[in-house]
Every structure is written in structure tokens, then in C-alpha cells.
Amino acid sequence: MKKYGLLLLPALFAVLSAAGQSAVDTVPRGGAWARMEVENGDTTFVMSLWPVKIATRRKFKDRDEQKQYYRYVRAARKVYPFALKAIELYEDIQEETADMNKRQRRRYVRHEHKELKEDFKDQMKNLSKTEGKVLIKMIERQLDKPFYTIIKETRGGATATYWQTVGKFWGYDLKDGYQLGTEPLLDDALLDYDFGDAVYRY
């Protein structure tokens, strides 16, 4: 199972290629805010709180489904910081290289890729197959692009085709992208994170 992390490592380097020596940390979330309003002698406190998800207790059709759901939940919790960083860096790459020609863009990405590699190597190589899958789906869901397209845009068509071939060997098609409703258990697991909208088609 750990070998899947080795498969994802170079592919994710294609996305995680613009932060140099940045550490991987979950984006801090600020606290709630409150203000006091006084009108006609009456005092009212107005507060803003983080939204929460309220749902009934999930019913599983069998124990295997229950185990799969919690497997996704644990994986999502672990890879969420990586997904945040990957999305941020992908958007940075697009912005920084917008006015570059192909040669300049390739040189820029190659340079940042080399510096970033040491930061993520030990953390990424130990991902399980499920953790790697959830990480990719988080990124695809937020960017609304298949992982194949993301690699192609950052590292070129040849690299994307190579990893598509390797991915198929492991039973994963990088061209599929995130498709809401295909895996309801995964959709539910990702609702607790800041990716996509809480919309169901089933």
C-alpha cells in the first residue's frame, strides 16, 4: 500500500512546485468575531461563527461500507494540509508564469521543483493508496480539473502521459477527474473540508 505514495510523489511535485522551502502546515483558521450594537437603549450582541455541518447519524448498509467511509475520513484528515498547499502552489505557478514563454516557464518550474523535493519527499512517500487517492480527489474537486490536466499544465504533456500510464498500472486513471456522486462515501468524507459545494446528485 505504501508504494502508492511513491507513485504520487513525482506527480504531486508537478503541482507542489512554487514554494521553495515552505513548510506544509494547515492554514490557520481565525476565531469568531462579535460586536455590540446599542439601539434605543437596547443592547444586542452580533456574532459571526464558523459554519458547521449538521447531519443525522449515518446508516451503513454493511460493515464494509462503514470501514470504507472511516478509511476515507482518516485519509482526508491526514492529507488535507497537503491539498491546501498543492492548490495554493498550483495557483501561484499559474500567476507567476502567466507572462512567460514555454522555455522560461519550464525553467522556472524545474528550479522550484528541485528545491521543493526535499521538503515533501519523506512525507509523501509514505502515503497509502487510499490517502493518495483522497489527496488527488481533494485537489481535483477544488480546481475542477483532472489531475492529468494539472500535471500537463505544470510539467508538460510527456510527463502527464507518463504518469497516466503509471497510474493505470495501479488501477487509477488520472484523466477521470472528480465526479460528484460516483463515490458517495468519498463525497460525504470531503464535506468537512473547504472543497467544492455541499451539493448532491443522488
Overall description:
- With 202 residues, this protein is mainly alpha-helical.
- The chain has one domain.
- 56% of the residues lie in helices and 7% in strands.
- It contains 7 helices and 2 strands; from the N terminus they run H-E-E-H-H-H-H-H-H.
- It has a two-stranded antiparallel sheet.
- A hairpin with a 2-residue loop joins strand 1 (33-39) and strand 2 (42-48).
- Helix 1 packs antiparallel against helix 3, helix 2 (63-96) packs across helix 4 (129-143) and helix 5 runs antiparallel to helix 6.
- The longest helix is centred in the middle third of the chain and has 34 residues, at 63-96.
- The two termini are 31 Å apart.
- Mean pLDDT is 76; it is low at 1-7, 16-31 and 196-202.
Based on CA atoms alone, the radius of gyration comes out at: 20 Å
Q: How many domains is the backbone divided into?
A: 1
How is the biggest beta sheet arranged? Answer: 2 strands, antiparallel
- What strand order characterises the main sheet? 1-2
Oligomer: single chain
On the 0 to 100 scale, the average pLDDT is 76
Low-confidence stretches: 1-7, 16-31, 196-202
Count of DSSP-assigned helices: 7
Shape: flat
Q: Give the strand content.
A: 5-15%
**SSE arrangement, N to C:** HEEHHHHHH
Number of strands: 2
Q: Report the structural category.
A: mainly alpha
Portion of residues within helices: 55-70%
Distance between the termini: 31 Å
